[in-house]
Amino acid sequence: MRRIVHLVHTSVDGFIEGPAGEFDWPVMGPELSAYVDEVDRGIGTFLYGRVVWQMMASFWPNAEEISDSPHVRKFAPRWRAMPKVVVSRTLPQPGDTAVRVLRGDALAEVAALKAEPGKDILLTGGTELASHLAAAGLLDEWVVAVHPLVLGGGRRLFTQQKERTPLRLVESRTVDGQVVVSRFAAS
């Protein structure tokens, strides 16, 4: 069975985007970029909720024209080539044949996706889908990059958690002298 790894950037006060929806604050330095590359090596599918998908789909197809960041230049071709799954009841079918939209019971369809053969699944960012999957016990690993700023409001990291979820710390390290990346596994 494949694992679902949730990779997310957050502020010190636990927000994944600012009060006006801004996501211009994570800094992808060389060490954080290398860490993300390390996580990506075991991944065979990218998983998104609709909101994060729309952000990704507006940037990554032509990312090299928008940014000259070394991380962007390295990751963009991988993103375009990777199979992608989007959980959404309202998203029109994207024109990209590498994208599959799950429209039914999200938890059942993601559980079926996990049961498919292949490499692990990476859920990037977001809060709604991640929260629902975590509450249903479908997330296997969390990679949380805490950036050194306080956003003071916005969208919280987890919104649907009603019960405690014990996790096991796998590793924690500081990258680029400022971002703390912690990796947790389901207990």
From TrEMBL:
<feature type="domain" description="Bacterial bifunctional deaminase-reductase C-terminal">
    <location>
        <begin position="8"/>
        <end position="181"/>
    </location>
</feature>
<dbReference type="InterPro" id="IPR024072">
    <property type="entry name" value="DHFR-like_dom_sf"/>
</dbReference>
<dbReference type="InterPro" id="IPR002734">
    <property type="entry name" value="RibDG_C"/>
</dbReference>
<protein>
    <submittedName>
        <fullName>Dihydrofolate reductase family protein</fullName>
    </submittedName>
</protein>
<dbReference type="Pfam" id="PF01872">
    <property type="entry name" value="RibD_C"/>
</dbReference>
<dbReference type="InterPro" id="IPR050765">
    <property type="entry name" value="Riboflavin_Biosynth_HTPR"/>
</dbReference>
